[in-house]
Amino acid sequence: MSVLEKVDGYDDEVIKICPNGTLGDVVELGGILIGLPETPKRGIKGEGLEASMQMWERLPMPSELSRIRSMDEWAETPKEFREKFRPFIEEEFRRRREGFWFYNQGQPTFITGRHYMLLQWTKIDIGYPSYLGFQRDIFLHMAACEVDPRCVGQLYTKCRRSGYTNICSSVLLDEATQVKDKLLGIQSKTGKDAQENIFMKKVVSMFRHYPFFFKPIQDGTTNPRMELAFREPSKRITKNNKTSYVGDALNTVLNWKNTTNNAYDGEKLHMLYMDEAGKWEKPSDIREAWRIERTCLIVGRRIVGKALVGSTVNPMDKGGSQYKQLWKDSDPTKRNANGRTTSGLYRLFIPAYEALEGFFDVHGNPIIQDPEKEVPTLDGDMMTFGSKTFLKNERDALKNDAKELNEIIRQFPFTPDEAFRDSVEGSLFNIGKIYEQIEHNDSLYPNPVVRGNFQWKGGVPDTEVVFLPNHQGRWYVSWMPDQENRSVMSMNRNKRVPPNPHMGCGGVDSYDLDATVDSRSSKGACHIYNKFNMDAASNMFVAEYASRPPMAKIFYEDVLMAAVFYGYPLLIENNKYGIVRHFESRGYDGYVMDRPDHLRSTSSSKNVKTKGIPSNSQDVIQAHASAIEDYIHKYVGLNEQGEPGKMYFNRTLEDWIGFKIDKRTKYDLSISSGLALLAAQKVKPKVEKKQFDEKVFFRRYKLS
What we know:
By secondary structure, the protein is an alpha/beta fold. It contains 18 helices and 26 strands. The chain has a 7-stranded mixed beta sheet. A 7-stranded mixed beta sheet has the order 19-18-20-25-24-23-26.
């Protein structure tokens, strides 16, 4: 029975999560289509009640059963007793397997078996959990990840206190107490967190409160520290702490491991929970760890295990950047030829205003917008405003404190971009203004940036350059000159020169090697910038490039064609001289700027290269950072009138956020954008005072 089905009205395949293969409503979560089971015609809990009275309610254990602690004790009860309660137990096993339907405020609502186990039988530190709508979405998405043969697991980027650790601990325990001959594992940001905060405080505690009929034969103590082992014990523990001896042992183990990249390397895992993945710091890199651990979940072409990966996000230099890349690699709308994402995971994000504590009505639905009248909450309060208003008020109160404002946005994000905000701490530039610009850019429709490539018309070099839109193109362009000003060829003393240096310029961070010898894989970067002028868009970046084609010469020619298209000169970092030689060999060395006079060292000899600009000069480094800082202050984010800037390239903005002046070579886009700004600077030449010399003004004549 295939779980993937093509359904009329949907472009992508629907992932059916019904164990019996039925298909009802289809919901979209995290970029995947999930087919719910067909709605039953009768037998839904709560039918016949008024809508206001329809909600999740936990069913208590029958009092006679609650006194039984093990399957041994159950086996010793009279037959009549067992026959009386067997239907109850069998029904619970069915709900665990197939899920559960109940009416919630007039709506027939399905929850998965895993979700049912959390709500009905999993006791946490505050008792049994309440039904919350956003957690239903997490479980539905998780179920789709589990049944989809193309998926290795779920990646959930969360806000603070969303209950994901409880969810995953419950799921691990639910699975470990059902399957035979399997290994299930736990990792967290530290080994101590994995052991104490997840395994002992949650998993073991949950297991102790499980009803006896869900407890398999267990080996070891009643409070294990290293593993839950569901195998035949070597001896009975005590009569008072009986474990089950009825039936075969599962021979399944649930354990935890220290936070190392190869913790489970060589093992065959059935399920793995990687907690706080956005906080793993080197040498335990979450991307490297996942690269190794995923091999424990795959045998050949078959996916034999599933992962649960979730986290809030640390600052980029504290594990966040690796997690961010894992997030990008987990987009289900971008698959390889085998139907898998780059990471194998399917990502999910839920906005903080849908998951904020204290803002759920008695039905477990989030109170997002301000209600027309006060609404009773799960906490017993009466709410007069929504979660969005509350969070916006918290943000507004911190608008003059960039650091604290940034932190509360990171911890309670409305969008994935907000979740991946970097820390303001130690930032060289005004991150608040940068994020204002990013948020503005994300709101634009249509987006002013077009992706594509510059090419010689008809493939004939040195003719006309044209721009061809392509969703996989290497250039991002927000503005182009009028048709008559494109690809204008200008000659000076039989030398090609850019015709529009008064209008704009560019900056280039190049590379020479076709393949890198390190793991950084530096990209070639270029920015085209419009100076202040009366005829076109002023003081704004109009094109951005960050790519690493298979050959360096492809990058060189890409940059050359852009320079010709705009007619702008380029300032190139000259520690990589291959691109300068390319321009020279192609007859376009006139497009390569000399080092600006105000950035030329007074100690420089005549033999020093004048084309381009050095990357190791302290004067240049400081001037470069200062140029970006000044540009951000003037043209990025909201100005005093509340008008947004016109810096539309989010990749560059994000690069500025992380920029470190002592590690500047990591930030290709920051380098090239700063060079473009240096090239655009107008510096008044120094006028030297000359001594008055009458010979200049009076001609003398020799009288004969």
